[in-house]
Specification:
- The protein is of the alpha/beta class.
- The chain folds into three domains: about 5-255, 3-Layer(aba) Sandwich (Aspartate Aminotransferase, domain 2); about 260-345, Alpha-Beta Complex (Aspartate Aminotransferase, domain 1), CATH 3.90.1150; about 370-430, Molybdopterin biosynthesis moea protein, domain 2 (Alpha-Beta Complex), CATH 3.90.105.10.
- Helices cover about 35% and strands about 15% of the residues.
- It has 17 helices and 13 strands.
- The protein has helices at about 5-15, 30-35, 50-65, 75-90, 105-110, 130-140, 160-170, 205-210, 225, 230-235, 245-250, 255, 260-275, 300-310, 335-345, 370, 410-420, and strands at about 65-70, 95-100, 115-120, 145-150, 175, 200-205, 215-220, 280-285, 290-295, 315-320, 320-325, 375-380, 425-430.
- The chain has a seven-stranded mixed sheet with strand order 1-7-6-5-4-2-3, sandwiched between helices. Strands 8-9-11-10 form a four-stranded antiparallel sheet.
- Helix 4 (about 75-90) packs across helix 5, helix 4 (about 75-90) crosses helix 10 (about 230-235) and helix 6 (about 130-140) packs parallel to helix 7 (about 160-170).
- The radius of gyration is 22 Å and the shape is globular.
- The relative contact order is 0.12.
Length: about 425
C-alpha cells in the first residue's frame, strides 16, 4: 500500500524550493517544520480532496471496510460532522444519546439545536445500555439516530452488535463515539463498531494508534451519506488542517493493512492476570486499557496516580475511584516488564470504603442550545443549587459533563461536583 501524502512531501523536500507560501516558519526550525506545508499545488485540499488526500483516504477505507475520512482536529470534529449528517439524513431532530457523552456532543447539540433524550446508566462515566432498554426508548421517543460512547473512559464497551440490530429494526441510524477504540479493528475477530453494525463512527487514531495528536477518522456505511461527508466536515473544521497530522494518518496505512494485535492483547491479558493475583481489582472489558479500582487497594485514584508518578509512570486519567492506563501496539516488552514491576512493588493497604455520591437525574429547564448561548455567570458550586447550567465547562479528561446545559443543578449534582473536584459552574444569569 502506498503513502501518497508522505511521498508528495518527500519529493517537495528533495526539490528544496523557495517557500513563498504559508506557514510563516518557511520550513526552518527542524524536520517537523520542514514537513509542515499548506495546500500548495499538488498537495490536495482536505475538504475538496480529489488527489493525494483522496487516494490516502481510499487506502484507509480499504483497511476499515467503510467510507473513511480524515480529521486533523480529533474525534470532536468528527462528532459534530457525524451529528450533522444524522440530522440531514434523518427524519427528525430527536437524538437518543448515552448520558456519558463527551462534551463535543453537547457543543454539537447546541450548534445544531438537537432535541436530545438521554439514556442513563450506572454512573456519569459509564452507561450500560441493553438492547431491551434501547428498544423501549426508541419506541417512546422516535429518534432519527442513537448516539453511544463505546469504549468509555473507564474501558467499558457496549454490545454494539445487539444494539445495532435494534436500530436497524426501527430504521434508526446508529452513531458510535469510538474515540478510544480505533485499534478494535485489528483484533481477531474485529470488535470495531463498523464491523458490528454501526452506521457512522468516529475514531481518535492518535489515542490508540501511532498517529500524531489530532489525527482521527470518520467512518460511514451508507454511500449516499458518504457523498455529503466533506461538506459536513468543512462546516465545523479549520480551513488550515495540519499537514503534519495528515502525513501521520497516511504513513500508518501500510502498517495497518497488515496489523494484528493478537500478541499485544495476549501480553496485556497476562499482565491483568498477574495484577489480579497480586490483589488488584480491575474494571472494564476493553482489551488495551488497564483500569484499576484503586480504593480496593487502599488508595484514592489521586494517591495511586501520585505513587505511579514518583516511579516515572504517568497515567492517562485518574479520579477519586480509578486510575486508567492506556497501552498500545507501541508499548514495548521493556515497558510491560517495568509497568508490571512497579505495580507489584506498590504496597497494598487496607481498602477504602468511601464511594461516589448517588446521582439523580437533573430536571431539564430549557434546551441545550438556549442554555449554551445564554448570558452566564460563574459561581462557586455551593451557590449553584437551583440554578440552570449554561455551558458545561468540564475538563478533559474525561470531558464528560455531570450536568448538561439547560438542566437545573440539584443538591445531588452539587455533591457529585464536589466529589470530583469541580469547584465552580457557569450558570444562566438571572
Amino acid at each position: 500500500m502506498n503513502t501518497p501524502i508522505v511521498d508528495f512531501v518527500e519529493e517537495y523536500l528533495r526539490q528544496n524550493p523557495i517557500r513563498m507560501h504559508m506557514p510563516g516558519h518557511k520550513g526552518l526550525g527542524g524536520s517537523e517544520y520542514a514537513r509542515d506545508i499548506t495546500e500548495i499545488p499538488g498537495a490536495d485540499s482536505l475538504y475538496e480532496a480529489s488527489g493525494i488526500i483522496r487516494e490516502s483516504e481510499q487506502n484507509a477505507s480499504a483497511i476499515f471496510g467503510s467510507h473513511t475520512f480524515y480529521s486533523t482536529e480529533g474525534s470532536s470534529h468528527a462528532i459534530r460532522a457525524m451529528l450533522f449528517l444524522a440530522l440531514t439524513h434523518g427524519k427528525s431532530r430527536k437524538i437518543l444519546a448515552g448520558r456519558n457523552a463527551h462534551k463535543a456532543f453537547l457543543s454539537a447539540a447546541a450548534l445544531l439545536d438537537l432535541d436530545v433524550s438521554w439514556l442513563y446508566g450506572d454512573s456519569y462515566l459509564t452507561c450500560s445500555i441493553t438492547a431491551d432498554t434501547l428498544e423501549a426508548a426508541i419506541k417512546a421517543e422516535s429518534p432519527c439516530a442513537v448516539y453511544l460512547t463505546s469504549p468509555d473512559y473507564l474501558g467499558n464497551t457496549l454490545d454494539i452488535a445487539a444494539l445495532s440490530a435494534v436500530c436497524k429494526r426501527y430504521g434508526v441510524l446508529l452513531l458510535v463515539d469510538n474515540a478510544h477504540g480505533a485499534y478494535l479493528k485489528f483484533l481477531t475477530p474485529s470488535l470495531h463498531p463498523m464491523d458490528l453494525g454501526a452506521d457512522l463512527c468516529c475514531d481518535s487514531a492518535h489515542k490508540t494508534l501511532p498517529v500524531l495528536t489530532g489525527g482521527a477518522y470518520l467512518h460511514v456505511r451508507d454511500e449516499k451519506i458518504a457523498e455529503t461527508v466533506k461538506p459536513a466536515l468543512a462546516l465545523f473544521g479549520s480551513t488550515s488542517p495540519s499537514y503534519l497530522i495528515l502525513q501521520s494518518l497516511d504513513r500508518i496505512n501500510p502498517m495497518l493493512a497488515q496489523l494484528s494485535l493478537t500478541e499485544t492483547e495476549e501480553r496485556i491479558m497476562r499482565l491483568k492476570e498477574t495484577l489480579a493475583e497480586h490483589g488488584y481489582v480491575l474494571v472494564g472489558n476493553e482489551p488495551l486499557k488497564l483500569t484499576i479500582s484503586t480504593k480496593s487497594y487502599g488508595y484514592t485514584g489521586a494517591e495511586f496516580a501520585e505513587e505511579l508518578s514518583k516511579r516515572q509512570i504517568i497515567c492517562e486519567f485518574f479520579d477519586p475511584d480509578f486510575v486508567v492506563l492506556m497501552l498500545s501496539i507501541a508499548t514495548t516488552d521493556e515497558t510491560f516488564a517495568r509497568l508490571e514491576t512497579v505495580l507489584c512493588e506498590i504496597q497494598k493497604k487496607p481498602a477504602l470504603h468511601t464511594s461516589a455520591p448517588v446521582f439523580t437525574r437533573p430536571k431539564a429547564v430549557c434546551s441545550i442550545r438556549e442554555a449554551s448561548f445564554s448570558r452566564f455567570e460563574t459561581l462557586p458550586i455551593a451557590d449553584c443549587c437551583g440554578r440552570v447550567l449554561a455551558s458545561a465547562s468540564v475538563a478533559c479528561p474525561p470531558a464528560v459533563p455531570i450536568v448538561m446545559s439547560g438542566e437545573e443543578i440539584n443538591q445531588p449534582a452539587i455533591d457529585a461536583f464536589s466529589y470530583y473536584g469541580i469547584n465552580e459552574c457557569n450558570v444562566i444569569k438571572k
